[in-house]
Amino acid sequence: MPINSFENYPMSWTPERKKLVPPIYRSIATLLEYDIINGFLAPDTKLPPQRELADYLDVNLSTITRAFKICEVKGLIYAVIGRGTFVTPNVRNAIFLEEHLEHNQYIEMGIIKPLDSSNTMVADTIRSIAGKDYLQNLLDYSHPLGMPYHRMAARKWIQNFSLDVHVDNIAITSGGQNALTLILASLFHPGDKIAVDRYTYPNFIELANILNIQLVPIEGDDWGMLPDRLETACGMNTIRGIYLVPSCNNPTAVMMDTKRRQEIANVIKRNNLLLIEDDIYAFLAPHYLPVSHWVPDNFLYISSIAKSLSSGIRVAFLAYANSFKEKLTYAIFNMNIKTSALNAEVITELIHTGNAERIVKEKIAIAKERNNLFQQYFQICNPHENPFSFFRWLPLSGHHGQRQFEESALAHGIRVYHSDRFSTKKDESSQFVRISLTSPNDITELNEGLRLLKRLLNEGKNA
């Protein structure tokens, strides 16, 4: 079909030809991803047939096929035989890792990768377990909440972060996101409200959207969520729960001190809130008492090992107050059946042999080096941020839309994420970018990524 024939031809998606740069298929995939994530294409929108899109853009059909395949593997679109290709629901703000075989044409500083070079120790542990005569005992349906000695190891791990919980109040789940899903599905109902930080973990935002749970943004300061603002919100709304990442908030890297944790705990007790404490970054923080310590009747404490030990071993430890035991057990029995005992065995072995502690020390040393390099480029020294954070929160001057800034960064050779992805409140008065320091392959690549980002921000100031 000649290009001119498309002037009055209705198409659900018409990417701009002038934005296409080699390799064309990847450029098309990037444009499609941005339009989906930013809401320009609504969930379940039917995309134009591949042949029509190829004619419209004046490219080969195989180019469109390759672009669609990239987006399909990333979960952005799905195909229905005989009907066409559609936009996947609930992907606008979620952050996920690209899964295609070809090498990225940019430096990854968006996704927070957890320094998986330590997986050599994890692999050695797996090989050791494979030779044990009890291996077959790990491969059945028994112990849905976790085998007793796995839960004892979980208790030992959680004690590292100054929380002591009886093993009967600990369950092993298939990662932190699974723990969050179990909590929201079993203890909350559609329409319930949960207080969250102004900027928070984007996959929690999307999970709440899926379950029709409303998030109430609470303003914060340099120490995190403001207790008086939380109190006011509780007085104005029927808030049922609160979600916190106090050891290193994602995305701001803010770390709550003891005083702020106690103040928040007092508000939780006065208003009988369910505390969801996501302490995934506790291993990077001083051993403050968790907020859960001060609310023994209201806490749900998640300790995922994805960032601290190994991202591929999908295990998290969920500790909880007695009042939640019955409903959580019911949810685990019916949603999980059980968590892989083989995965839990790997983590248990790492804890008991001391290798878990070695991995943590190695990661902290790398994180320290990378944070020092970041400071050399941006001279931002905030004493309230976790000094070993895997990511940094950088303020932007001027106003940038999410799509505009992320596209510009990608064109400069880096992928970073704009603050819109993390926002629970529509407000353009201040804007930021989250930079992952742990995703570049080494310190040399990180140095290049920071150099490119610095140049991009300087160009923005001079524009």
Could you walk me through the main structural features you see in this protein, from its secondary elements to its overall organization?
Helices cover 40% and strands 14% of the residues. It starts with 23 loop residues before the first helix and ends with a helix. Helix 5 crosses helix 11 (341-353), helix 8 (227-236) packs parallel to helix 9 and helix 12 (355-378) packs parallel to helix 14. It contains 14 helices and 16 strands. Residues 99-103 have low confidence and may be disordered. The strands form five sheets. The chain has a seven-stranded mixed sheet, with helices on both faces. A three-stranded antiparallel sheet has the order 13-16-15. Strand 9 (239-244), helix 9 (258-271) and strand 10 form a beta-alpha-beta unit. The chain folds into three domains: 3-92, Orthogonal Bundle (Arc Repressor Mutant, subunit A), CATH 1.10.10; 118-356, Type I PLP-dependent aspartate aminotransferase-like (Major domain) (Aspartate Aminotransferase, domain 2, 3-Layer(aba) Sandwich); 361-462, Alpha-Beta Complex (Aspartate Aminotransferase, domain 1), CATH 3.90.1150.10. With 463 residues, the chain is of the alpha/beta class.
